[in-house]
TrEMBL record:
Protein name as annotated: Starch-binding associating with outer membrane
A Pfam family: SusD_RagB
Signal peptide, first to last residue: none
Domain of life: Bacteria
Family that this chain belongs to: Belongs to the SusD family.
Keyword annotations from UniProtKB, A to Z: Cell outer membrane, Membrane, Signal
Amino acid sequence: MKNHIKISILFLFVLMGCEDFLDIAPTAAVSSGNYFVDDQQLETGVIAMYDAIQGVNSTSTSDNHSIQYEFYITEMRSDNTRTKSSEGEAAQFESYTIQSTNGIVLDYYRSMYNVIYRANLVLENIDVASDANRDQFEGEAKFVRAYAYFNLVRLFGDVPLLDRVIGPEDEALSFTRTSTADVYSLITSDLQDAVAKLGKVSINRASKAAAQAMLAKVYLTQGTNYVEAQQLLEAIIGTEYSLEDDFRDVFYSESNDEVIFAIGYLPDLTSDSQNFSSEWLNAVGRTSGVNYVTTEAREALDNLGGARTQYSYRQDQRQPTEYQVVKYLPDGDESLGIPATSTDPTLAGNDWIVIRYADVLLMHVEAIMAGANETSSGSAISSFQQVRSRAGITTPVATITKEDLLNERRVELAFENHRWFDLVRLGVARDVLSAFSAANNYSFSDTDLLLPIPQAEINLSKGLLTQNPGY
């Protein structure tokens, strides 16, 4: 990943030996207790957290692919994308027929707990840090832990809450589901600490602004603390971040001023590249077309996207009846002025953007709206119009409705794994996805608002870990 600090082979052996969060205690001769002795060693642990989010670029089902699989359980469960062939485990997401044995769901669940384990490992050893670096390392670890739990609680509901590295005597904690309220309590506390402790390192590591933006989204998701969310967002607005003039540059001019937090990748290196963007192409990645753009998403972009549309989706060059995501194209597109990022699309170097300034501006509108169906606030209109103006849409608005906000978020953040969460957070998932399902002969029901707890984890727990209703 970008700004990579090489981790020693010995430390990788110890740390990666706990790839599954259920592997309670490493048995190697060198343990975390005697490895971490100063800032240099602790920073390897910090970098390892981001490596866990980055995921492994491989075809092995035993590896944690982390966010490289995230589009399956977010975009492809929404009305934005689908598979080309409606076959295999991937098709379960588009048709709302997800099984508890789905390997992609298991991979993501275990990946996020591996991220949490690594964050807890840093926090357990934070006392070795110098006064100069302690706050930064602690803030990063708490941001990363909050990030992983925020994804888990929104996708699975009640989940095991592990706020420290556990030993064999605490194994039951790995399988004991904790209420969403308690999970959110830890997320909020971690992000508040991160806001207080963090400065700015690089876009590929946690910063104060990233923590502020994520905490604001946590408040919006809970439907509480709208004033605090607005204040957090206004602390970012007007600072060093700004919208790129050209929408294309957001994705193809990396480390730009719009990106607040991104997971970095390097091209042509198996250890630091990604292959999810090649999976979205036809017969280039391991699959033959996933994350294909739905008719509904194309219509939204055609009608509301403005200058964003051509950089959001394109006609499949191999199969003209289908349409592909343009953001993150690994092999480029000369007709759109998009360069290739690697010599091999399956070893792509495109960063994955988690938080960017346009999202902050649209969350600002949402915070001012404060759960109402519309707002005519001048501050909200200013933020809303900045995003639209960049897309060449200059028609002034006097009022912003919740539907306007949802539509704008859809076309601005299309295929960036926001749509599912937006529908749920703004209280329209049931209605929107029921209509989408009916129009496409899918089988959406209330059960599908949460993913199943992976059956493999339930089996490991010997029944202690319970399943979500309907699975």
